[in-house]
Amino acid sequence: MTVAERIRHKLTQAFAPVRLDIIDESHRHAGHAGARPEGETHFSVEIVSDAFAGRSRVERQRLVYATLADELRERVHALALKTLTPEEDRAEPRQRRVSSPV
Q1: Staple partner for 39: which of 26, 76, 87, 90, CB 3.0–4.6 Å?
Q2: Is the pLDDT at 39 greater than 90, yes or no?
Q3: Which pLDDT tens digit goes with each residue over 80-94?
Q4: What share of the chain is helix, strand, coil (3-state, %, to 5)?
Q5: CA dist 99 → 9, 23, 50, 71, 74 (Å)
Q6: What residues make up the domain containing 66?
Q7: Does the pLDDT value for residue 96 go beyond 80?
Q8: Phi and psi dihedrals of 81, rounded to 5?
Q9: What are the beta bridge partners of residue 97?
């Protein structure tokens, strides 16, 4: 299982997202600290879930970091997060990448 697949599995299990986008951005960081030649070290994650309702941005990110603690300790050097409720997602402008429904 790839790191991205592990991330998807864990976040799906923990948050039952209505949308989850995981982008491996490792190629953009080649030669930087924490980068590995084989990649899978730098990720951008956008997750939309009802589990974030009533929580601050910091609380949401802490929940995600706790869920991915093993990946962050073992392999992932950088993780950019965007955590939204479905209502917040609907209110955002539609200038986003291709989404992958869960």
Answers
A1: 26
A2: no
A3: 999 999 999 999 876
A4: 40, 20, 35
A5: 17, 11, 17, 23, 27
A6: 3-91
A7: no
A8: -120, 140
A9: none
Q: What are phi and psi of 24, to 5 degrees?
A: -85, 110
Do the beta carbons of residue 49 and residue 85 sit within 8 Å? yes
Nearest to 80 by CA among 42, 54, 48: 42
Q: pTM for the complete prediction?
A: 0.81
Enumerate long-range contacts of 32-37, CB under 8 Å, 24 or more apart: 33/77, 34/77, 34/78, 35/77
Q: Please tell me the distance from the alpha carbon of residue 102 to that of residue 99, in angstroms, as a whole number.
A: 9
- Distance CA(43)–CA(72), nearest Å, equals 11
Question: Which pairing describes strands 19-24 and 42-48: parallel, antiparallel, or unpaired?
Answer: antiparallel
| Contact indicator for 49, 67 with CB cutoff of 8 Å | no
Q: What CATH number should be reported for the domain holding residue 53?
A: 3.30.300.90
Q: Which residues lie closer than 8 Å to 6 by C-beta, 6 or more apart? A: 71
